[in-house]
Design a protein that fits this description.
- The protein is an all-alpha fold and 239 residues long.
- The chain has one domain.
- It is 79% helix and 0% strand.
- It has helices at residues 3-17, 19-28, 36-58, 73-100, 108-119, 123-148, 153-167, 174-191, 195-214, 216-238.
- Helix 4 crosses helix 9 (195-214), helix 7 crosses helix 8 (174-191) and helix 8 packs across helix 9.
- The protein starts with a helix and ends with a helix.
């Protein structure tokens, strides 16, 4: 792994830990306490993305995947669009499997993000755009790309997906994160362009966040009705 990748990883880790310093600074600056997490998320994600993109732009290093001939720009656009549908399909399949084996549904990580967005809509920019860009660079370009040069696709994608799951602190949803990891890794290897999984990931996150933010009341009503129907069904079965 080239030293540029090392600096990128350090930047990402520092971003994750920066709230320890950033939070108190914003508090002293007069930002309302309940808005501090949202503001610092936007600030830290923005700075980290800019720094990492500059490091990549200045670097001439290419991993084993990128040293191969990439697909054309037209093919990249097509695969980016297909990638969105692939990502949602993989997510649905993973949720179905998790439900069947008894994994409680709902993501604490996603819920925290929605709460931040409700307090400060600008957070959408960080979690729907900057977040996926950072994650694809870290987990696909660097971690998966480095592993892929040493082992078969399956194991490289599996290991990088497990690290992806650990980074989100949601090990109970490892199947879900693995499904996403395999999908984005496939897009990367297939096209030899990191921009393709980035676009697919950004599109998926944007749609999910907007749906849960804009349609929050409607989704809550749907869930309430679904729970009522389930209770009625259980009552009929018991009767």
């Amino acid at each position: 792994m080239k030293k540029e990748y090392g600096w990128i990883l350090i930047t990402y880790i520092l971003m994750q830990l920066s709230g320890i310093i950033g939070g108190p600074l914003l508090y002293k600056a007069g930002i309302a306490e309940e808005l501090i997490p949202g503001y610092w998320t936007v600030i830290s994600f923005t700075l980290a993305t800019l720094i990492i993109l500059i490091i990549i732009w200045r670097s001439t290093y290419r991993n084993a995947i990128e040293r191969q001939a990439p697909v054309s720009a037209v093919s990249a656009v097509i695969w980016s669009i297909l990638g969105v549908f692939m990502a949602f399909s993989a997510q649905i399949l993973a949720v179905t499997i998790e439900t069947q084996i008894g994994v409680p549904q709902g993501s604490e990580n996603t819920q925290q993000i929605i709460e931040l967005v409700q307090g400060l809509p600008l957070v959408i920019l960080a979690v729907a755009i900057f977040g996926p860009i950072l994650e694809e660079i870290i987990f696909r370009k660097i971690i998966f790309g480095s592993l892929y040069s040493r082992m078969p696709f399956f194991f490289a994608a599996l290991i990088s997906s497990l690290i992806f799951s650990v980074a989100h602190a949601e090990l109970e949803h490892t199947i879900l994160y693995a499904a996403m990891g395999f999908t984005f890794a496939f897009l990367y290897v297939k096209t030899k362009r990191i921009i393709v999984p980035i676009v697919a990931h950004v599109s998926m996150n944007t749609l999910v966040v907007l749906m849960q933010y804009v349609l929050a009341d409607e989704l809550e009503e749907i869930m309430r009705k679904a729970e009522q129907m389930e209770q009625v069904s259980q009552w009929i079965t018991w009767w």
